[in-house]
Amino acid sequence: MDKLNRCRRWGLATAYFLLAGTGVARAEFPEKPITLLVPFAAGGPSDKIARELAESLRKRLDKTVIVENLGGAGGTLGAAKVATASPDGYTLLIHHIGFATAPTLYRKLPYKGIDDFAYLGLINEAPSTLIGRNSLPAKNFAELRRWIAADPTKVNLAHAGVGSASQLCGLMIQSALKAEMTSVPYKGTGPAMTDLMGGTVDLMCEQATNAVPQIEGGKVRAFAVTSKDRMKHPVLASLPTLAESGLPDFSVTVWHGLYAPKNTPGPVLAKLNEALRGALKDPELIKRQEALGITVVSDARVEPAAHKKFVEAEVARWAKVIQAAGAYAD
């Protein structure tokens, strides 16, 4: 009997270690709260999106998702923190288009680049709007284009700092117009928008998320949207696209993606991707995003492989723009 009991105990121990090797015997992920890191200051577009997504993820993972902000250096400080975090799925990064531009924009990154991350899926896409001070002599884009062409260097183009979506969009517009305007950097969207409304600067290319309230309130003049197609949002529906306004094939959207540290276990990534896909089908999340002029992604890019392929294409696309403009960060 003792020999039989020893055999049974040996068999159970062997089974345990075999199962542990496959991850079956481990406690099911997640066991504790998850941190969703936003590499920008609180209150901005990325922060708003992160907080809405966090609540939807919480419902699907049945664990608290804590939003943490770590701004600085165009989002690279926050990205570096996630890149070097424990690859266990408990520290995630939400990042916008700057994730793809940083490898070209910054000569020295505090992490290796986009291969330092595991891809979980694309979240959304938001157009930007080309807006100007109310006292501009131009009433529409055609008039604005002629006004800029008269003397581009006298046109003050505001943006929210190096690596910001507003700077990148502004670079693309200048490239399309073949007009080098005077760049006016700010430490964030808030002060840039304040000066635009006050008439201190002339133009700004800003995400619809932030621009809609100012357009609706008549505090700035809107000339066009940067999306491929016109927007259905009630405030933006009447605005033409830049493509139909004489800049063929112009299309710039500010997208957000979700990432984990490289080497995060496959089963954990699968669980997180499943939760993300579920969140992006949440009617409440979709409704709130659409109210801000944002489109929730519903195509293949919600899957990790397609998400990574999309980002790689964006890296190549923006590298050309940044290199042509010589707009490198220190």
TrEMBL record:
Q: Which domain of life is it from?
A: Bacteria
Give the family, as the similarity comment puts it: Belongs to the UPF0065 (bug) family.
What this protein is called in its record is Tripartite tricarboxylate transporter substrate-binding protein
Originating organism: Roseateles violae
